[in-house]
Amino acid sequence: MIPLGELLTMEALEADPDPLLARLRAEAPVCWAPALDMWLVTRWDDVEYVEAHPELFTAATEPSFLARTLGQNMLTSDPPELTRIREIMLPPFRAGGRSGEFVSAELPGLADSLIDGFPTGKFDLMTQYAQPLSAQSLALVLGLDEFGFDRMWKWCEGLCTDLANFENDPELAAVGERTKHDLGKALAERLAQGTDDDSAISWFVRHGASAEEVINNVRLMISGGINEPRDGIGLVVWVLLTRPDLRAEIEADPRLMRRLVEEVFRLFSPVGTATRQATADVQLAGTQIRAGDLVAAVLRSANLDEDHWLAPTEIDLHRKQGPHAAFALGAHRCLGEWLGRQEVKVGAERLFAKLPNLRLDSNHKVEVYGFEFRGPRELWVTAGGRS
């Protein structure tokens, strides 16, 4: 019989990780994956433990996909350095900062303008709506709108290509390196223009972040702050188009849209892992991990842990079991989680408000794909009548 760890190839995990992760939780919750050269930690309690103990599992890994692709950033540091830069960069992403202003005054109009520009007939909602809405939203909050949606998306795509490069493919690493250089140059140009506006980038500089810290952490924000809401929008829309029962429940009580967004993030976890490195020999779930070993806390698996969640594979709009781990746990929680949630919620609400007859195109199968970044490859729809 093939050892379970030998089945953990990127090809298998990208196509459909859930059956493999379920086996890991049941048989080997801390499992060495030779193809990835790291341990996969798959149960909620163990993922939570890894996140809560930076003295045993540091984010300052060597080697580091994140540092290679982005430069040193919040996710490659631990407190107190993490705490310092996080306190500088969090306020613009709160409801009381630039993000709150954007969501209330600009996001609905941005969504409506994209919907009004949809082509007639069949089209891919991911490229026509989810992608530009998430890219333009982040660009406006950060203060990078001058570079345009297309360039923002290409930066995100290029960075994510290398961030998901667990098997160290040199061609994929080269894509990341080119993107890192191009984005760094553009951000340096942006910083040279001054910081006297209300953008998040200007806030960072005015409150003590160095140019290098701004550039590296904005690379981080672009890699996650476009991809995750993009996939979230696609997943929520797909769920509503295939689950008339959930759609009817939300139409009867629109407040439940917020709960649907949370359940979709939990169930699909568009960002899959948090990578750490053991600082000493340590036992976790009865398994010996050596000092220096890389450890991937699998957020997607924690969100499906049968010992933590009731009916974890079901969407329950009335679930009372506390927060999920889709935006990570502890000190490394996603900085832009509030903004990302709003993009998905408002994006889906405006879409169905303006296109009540929206439906899937039956000629195109929806394929949800990916391990580190997971969402629909395409989402072909027809709009029907407009309101």
Name its key features.
387 residues, 51% helix
Folded structure, characterized:
There is one protein chain. The protein is of the alpha+beta class and 387 residues long. The chain has a domain at 65-268 and 320-382: Cytochrome p450. Helix content is 51%, strand content 10%. The protein is built from 17 helices and 12 strands. The strands form 4 sheets. The protein has a 5-stranded mixed sheet. Strands 4-12-9 form a 3-stranded antiparallel sheet. Helix 7 crosses helix 17 and helix 8 (125-142) packs across helix 9. It starts with 9 loop residues before the first helix and ends in a 5-residue tail after the last strand. The model has no long low-confidence stretch (mean pLDDT 95).
State the helical fraction: 40-55%
Largest sheet features: 5 strands, mixed
SS field, number of helical segments: 17
Strand residue content:
5-15%
Order of helices and strands: HHEEHEHHHHEHHHHHHHHEEEEHHEEEE
Output the CATH homologous superfamily of the domain at 65-268 and 320-382: Cytochrome P450
Subunit organisation of the chains: single chain
How many distinct beta strands?
A: 12
Question: If you average the pLDDT, what whole number results?
Answer: 95
Low-confidence stretches: none
- Given helix and strand content, the structural type is alpha+beta
Q: Which class of the domain at 65-268 and 320-382 in CATH terms? A: Mainly Alpha
CATH architecture tag of the domain at 65-268 and 320-382: Orthogonal Bundle
Outline type = globular
> What is the CATH fold-level name of the domain at 65-268 and 320-382?
Cytochrome p450
Q: Separation of termini?
A: 58 Å
Q: How much is the radius of gyration in Å?
A: 20 Å
As laid out across the biggest beta sheet, the strand order is: 1-2-8-5-3
